[in-house]
Structures are given as C-alpha cells and as structure tokens.
Specification:
alpha/beta
Length: 264
C-alpha cells in the first residue's frame, strides 16, 4: 500500500470547554483558505463541529458512525461545507451507541484508521479529527488513526492538571496501539491579557513544555463565540477579529511543524 500523502491530526482534550471544536473548525478553515484540501471528522456525539459548519441535523444522512462500523467510505460520508476546500464527516447521536456496536471486536480501536486508509481519503491534504471531551473508544480510535495530536488548553488554573492527564493518555496510546503518534503542539486558548492568572498559566506551560507550545495565543473573543450560532467559522463570520487572525497564525505554525515532521 502506498503511503498516504495526507496528514491526520487529532484534536483532543479530556476536559470540556477548552475551545477544542472551535479550534478544529477555525484551524480547518484557515488551512482551506490557503488552498489545502481539508476534511473534519466529527467524532463527538454532540456534533458541535457539524453544527458550527452549518450542517443541519436533518441533512446528516450518513455520519462518522457509518465510517466506524464499516458501512460506508469517506467519499460517501463526507459533505461539503460553506468553506471552499473544506468537507466534513458529520456526527449524529448514533455515535452514542457505537461502543456497544463494535466494543466486542478485536480491531475496535482501529476502525477509524481502517476507514481512513481507503484510497478515497487521498483527495485531502489534512484530516482533522474532533474528539469528545473524554477518553473513550471514540477518542481511542482518533488517536490510533492519527500521526499527531493537537491539544487546545484553556488559560485557567486547572489547565496543567488536565494536561498532565492527557499527556499520560498519549503515552499510553503510543505504548499500546500507535507508536508513531506525536504531539503536534499545545495551543493556548481563551487567553485574556488583562488576567494575571492567564499570563501565569502561559508562563508555566511554556516552562514545562517548551517548544511543544505554539507561539500563537488564541484570545477570548466575542466574535469567535458568536460564529457557531450562524453556522460559520469565525474566519468567515469576521475575518478581521482578533480570534480569526490568531487562527490564521496558528495554521501557519501547524503547516511549518508538519513540514518539519515530514522532512525528519
């Protein structure tokens, strides 16, 4: 089998409310805006990435559930979005039952990896997987399929505690199912420059993890928060707002790291 040219990046954090889905949507949009062909895999049963890209629930005839149980291919499940070059494999509530459906199978953690090895995934340059805010079979499938994991981290008091748990999870996945999994980077989200605690969290995370932390800080931004209710990424909703500009900078950093990773 030829080595696929696309890169699979899983966006994960076991803690909710850290800007994970917002990061998935806007990073994907920023990559698509510079001509990369991007697919988002929405693996969260809540389906926020799908809703945030304007995919109505009644239009989700096929979903990531169908990918995981092997009913359909990437080409059959992927749907176009309002963003040129950006498609999504949408989520439905069927994902809540997927653990019972495939949990007894020996290859249960490799279902997504197998689905993405199908030749029709080769039309993409980047595949971003948005995970639920927990460590379950869905997240395990996402980490087993990915080449790297991107971790959104909120600039708040308990951030480092949650991060250490996630890094332990990544180590566990490396030891058991995906030795090649790398940490693409840690992106600090919901940053408020007026908040001394936020400044301290940034300093602590950079001290502990050094170059693994992106230089880009994603600020708290009203326009970014409003965008999903309009079914649009912030970059389409308000390109000039501080949040959109930050995600464009993040995309540049991600591409640079991916190039370095491929060259290594």
């Amino acid at each position: 089998m030829n080595k696929p040219k696309y890169r699979i990046i899983t966006i994960a954090n076991q803690k909710g409310g850290v800007g994970k889905t917002t990061t998935a949507i806007n990073l994907a949009t920023a990559l698509a805006a510079i001509g990369e062909r991007v697919l988002i895999i929405d693996l969260d049963p809540q389906g926020n990435a799908s809703t945030g890209l304007g995919i109505d629930r009644k239009d989700r005839k096929l979903s990531t559930y169908d990918l995981l149980v092997g009913n359909n291919t990437v080409a059959e499940v992927a749907m176009p979005t309002v963003v040129p070059n950006l498609s999504i494999a949408a989520s439905t509530m069927d994902l809540l039952g997927v653990e019972m459906e495939i949990g007894h199978e020996n290859d249960r953690v490799f279902k997504m990896k197998k689905a993405l090895q199908h030749s029709d995934a080769n039309v993409y340059d980047y595949i971003l997987i948005d995970c639920p805010p927990s460590f379950n079979l869905l997240t395990m499938n996402a980490l087993a399929a990915a080449q790297s994991v991107l971790v959104p981290l909120q600039c708040e008091f308990f951030a480092l505690e949650g991060l250490s748990q996630l890094l332990e999870t990544v180590d566990q996945v490396r030891r058991t199912v995906n030795p090649a999994l790398d940490i693409q980077g840690i992106v600090l989200t919901m940053f408020d420059s007026r908040n001394n605690l936020a400044q301290q969290v940034v300093s602590d995370v950079r001290q502990h993890l050094g170059s693994k932390v992106y230089q880009t800080l994603i600020p708290r931004n009203v326009r970014v928060s409003e965008a999903p209710s309009y079914g649009k990424p912030a970059i389409l909703y308000d390109l000039k707002c501080a949040g959109s500009q930050a995600y464009l900078q993040l995309a540049s950093e991600v591409i640079q790291r991916e190039r370095q990773s491929r060259a290594a």
